[in-house]
Amino acid sequence: MDGMLANIGPSGSKAQSVPAGVVVASPSKNNPDYFYTWTRDLSLVFKCVVDKYSSGQYPELQSLIQDFVQAEAVIQKVPNPSGNFASGGLGEPKFNADETAFIGAWGRPQRDGPALRAIAVISCASLLNDSATVLNTLWPIIEPDLDYVQNDWNLTTFDLWEEVSSSSFFTTAVQHRALRQGAALAKSLGQTSVAISYSTQADNLLCFLQSYWNLKGYITANTGGGRSGKDANTVLASIHTFDIFAGCDSVTFQPCSDKALANLKVYVDSFRSIYRINNNASSGAVATGRYAEDSYMGGNPWYLTTFAVAQQLYAVWNAQGYLTVSDISLAFFRQFMPSVTAGTYPSSSSTLTSAITSHADGYVAIVDKYTPLNGGLSEQHSRDTGVPLSAVDLTWSYAFGLTALDAKAGKTPESWGASGLTVPAVCAPDNGGGSGGGGGGGAPSVSVKFIETVTVDPGESIYLVGSVPQLMQWNANNAIPLISTNSNTWKVSVSLPTNTHVEYKYIRKANNAPWESDPNMQLTTPADGTVTEHDTWR
Ligand code: NOJ
Ligand code: NOJ
Predict the structure, then answer these.
(1) Quick check: is 159 catalytic?
(2) Which pTM value belongs to this model?
(3) Which residues contact 254 (CB under 8 A, 6 or more apart)?
(4) What is the pLDDT of residues 210-239, one digit of tens each?
């Protein structure tokens, strides 16, 4: 914990020059220069600190949490190359340590940042038992981040490694969590219509999340990038969306779900032969990195990814008292018990329990082996010799160590509402990174983007309804809400059956619900491709 706190200003010994609550990624100022504050790194660190504080063991962390909240309230409003507070600036990946904008070239925007920050600040809300205070102090920080996520989740983003611009599993997964959790908080604060609109987009994100699973039996990390797609991105997503009440549900890729475990094996195996320090080990724990094709700063193993593998494995038994081995996860389990067959195995009687736990310990042992005597955790360690490389004292390397050891100790972060979720039958497809939303299956469909220009009165929203089941067959009570992207533009994407004549209308809903004047609008969907309808309110 000391290594992590040393990089947080101004009391941290390695961050004395920076404002209160600002987390620098590393004290390293050259090769690489990491003396910046990244929204992703700091939000994961911040969440780790809040979880530590919630355990009751570290009351001294309270003022640091207040500092974080205040620093982020400032940083959110700093105009930057991605935009300003209301026009996309929340997606800016990093800021100078003095809270000013970084204006150099960079992979931007990175849309995981606002989601991760919202998750961290929402976790602070449960520390306060008083909704008026939450509404006045935290909600003004949470809501803009969640609005950003709900409006723009389907646009292209740079991935968490700041390299590939497409759609990205980690980003989608944390966006889904943020909106799901945000909807529950909004509801508890009496923000009913906000809650409804966050849950609508959370459903769409959950749909889209399914599409990253591929037929080769793992999660493709990015829709772009031209790589194998085997990537720590997916493991980080699984551990950071762990929900103790969700069991081993594969819909949210819980750490013990069959899909996440199958994926973990494929990911780990991709490093067995490429790092000399792994000695081509065909089984057992090995050092892992971001992804096999990586060449950044030598493309070495990362401490935090190896910790992440351990954390996922420790979490396996934290969710429920039994495991189900399915055809999807069979290869994962056969690493430990070659004779295992599909079925259900209780934690009490199973040799799998100890095998998986000691496998997890193996990853922690690897990190220990390559940690220097002073305990410093840098970003990488040499693939050939194991010596530390790249940024020294990387703040989130320490955070990953802490959360992995908490998982080992059976300490689980609070639930975020992943339990019992089902994938909606109709998915609003992703429009940015390619590959459409999954989950629906069945008949061929095309994505139709409806864009309506209309100026609404305060409190009014725009909905869409029409002649086909996907448009709720003219049932105005179930009409599909559009999202406002600026003061007079509203949009939504809907999957419609191909080659079908469709009639539709927009509706304004507030207290009463006037419909647009006649006649109905119409379109005929093509056999494939995408369609955009530009309309203006009548
Ligand atoms: C800097 C980024 O921080 C790192 O993730 C990336 O690999 C390199 N740029 C190369 O694009
Ligand atoms: C490069 C990593 O790829 C990125 O994920 C991280 O945010 C920065 N370094 C800062 O640690």
Answers:
(1) yes
(2) 0.82
(3) 238, 241, 242, 243, 246, 247, 248, 260, 319, 418
(4) 999 999 999 999 999 999 999 999 999 999
Active site residue 92: no
Cα 23 to chain center, whole Å? 20
Active site residue: 99, 159, 393, 452, which one?
Answer: 159
Question: Which residue's C-alpha comes closest to atom 7 of ligand 1?
Answer: 296
Candidates 26, 162, 236: which one to mutate for ligand 1, based on the most atoms within 8 Å of Cβ?
Answer: 162
SS3 label, residue 177: helix
What is the rounded average pLDDT of the residues 404-413? 96
Q: What contacts 519, CB < 8 A, 6 or more positions away?
A: none
With b meaning 16 or more CB within 10 Å and e meaning fewer, what string describes 389-411? bbbbbbbbbbbbbbbbebbbeee
CB 480 within 8 A of CB 203: no
Residue nearest to atom 3 of ligand 2 (CA): 161
Q: Which of 162, 163, 361, 503 is catalytic?
A: 162
User: What is the pLDDT averaged over residues 317-342?
Assistant: 93
Q: How far apart are CA 101 and CA 70, in angstroms?
A: 17
Would you tell me how many other CB atoms lie within 10 Å of the CB of residue 285? 22
